User: What shape does this take?
Amino acid sequence: MAASDFTPTDPTLMVVPWHDPVVDDLGFDVRSCYVEQFWLGVLGPSAMWALRRLVAGLDRFPLGYELDLDETAHELGLSYSTATSSTFVRALQRCVMFGVAQPIADGLAVRRRLPPVAARHLARMPVALQQQHRTWTVRRTDLDDLTRGMALAQAMVAAGDDPEVLERQLLAVGVSPAAAIEAAERVSA
Assistant: This one.
């Protein structure tokens, strides 16, 4: 099914998790700094916000839930109708087109974690962003950097910081991307 063929006709649709062991293990959380930095230009802002909203629902209902399309579109500031010209429908179609969601009977299966951006998308990014991407995709962490990241993450949680913002805070204080991701995941687990 082509992404443009995905046009919901009912007022609601089912949203379920898309299980992909490889991407689930190696990918990046939809709300991560990596996804914001490198996937935003690929998906576009409306599709990114729609995807984040779909995944937030899966946090609350891990096996799946029924999504009210009109209500969700309006919460995101988007128009909704069953026509393909609806900005919300186009956002969902972009999620399908770029492989972060896939149509299923009566709904969508949605990735909770995204793979690294494909080389073809990376090649279209500005050179500075391509250089940043090389830093982000290094999976090795320096033990000292990870130890520092873990200590900072634990202190942040002990001080009452929201675990959802740990990665961003660790990056802001100079922890490497690989260490910030690992420390935030370990402390939040």
About this structure: The chain is about 55% helix and 10% strand. Residues 143-188 form one domain. The radius of gyration is 18 Å. The CA atoms of residues 121 and 128 lie 14 Å apart.
